[in-house]
Amino acid sequence: MAKVAKKVAKKAAARKPVSKPSARRPVKPSPRPKPEPSISVNKERFTLHGFALSGPTYTVALMLSLCRHPFSYIHVNLREGAHKQPDYLVKNRYGQVPCLRDGQVFLSQSAAILEYLAGKLGKFDGKTEFEQQRVREWMFWIWDKLAAPIYRLRQRARGLRQFGDEVKVMYDSEARSALAVLELELSKSEWLTGRKPTIADIDAYGVIRYAAEAGLDVQAYPRLAEWKKRFEALPGFATPEQLLPLESRLL
Known about the structure:
CATH class of the largest domain: Mainly Alpha
Largest sheet: 4 strands, mixed
Distance between the termini: 105 Å
Shape: globular
Mean pLDDT: 88
Number of helices: 9
Strand content: 5-15%
Order of helices and strands: HEHEHEEHHHHHH
């Protein structure tokens, strides 16, 4: 009986069709991402109102230059009080420089302008919420602890501000303390907030650029001096003399 069952099983296996291996469908290569269309730069978009000797004006001009974005420049004669005239106060309620026009919008306060440009142009901004917070912290600190003493010492040296030697010593001490903070931070990384320069570095350079005029030697701070050299090697870097003429320049 067992032999009969085996014969039946063999016959059934012989009648069963052998399935052919299914042909593989060719895998289509994934399409390459299309390059973003190049956007032509609008040369008439930005107009910077400022003063050639103004550190904050230079900081904004430097940001635009590093972003490779052209801009028109309107010279505001502070010595003749042009910044207090009604037609300028309409643009800048504080009666200060710089003032940046973007289309129909007028912006003031250099640090706020840097933050605005970083967001609009997508350059030198923090890539994460944490990085953006660090950038903002540095910019608040720069104006409070670094810019204030250096700019006041520079103004005194130029005869634009008067105060006694005791006050000068105070500002000098504050400036050196701020430079020491930068020296320590730059011993940890190449840039203030990490591996790449941001508007925090641009804001700081706009002050450090004038340290010598304030009687401060940046070379006494090796890491800070190296940072300054790296910054000046960035594509698009330009000096105040190259960016801020003594007369208006329209594109």
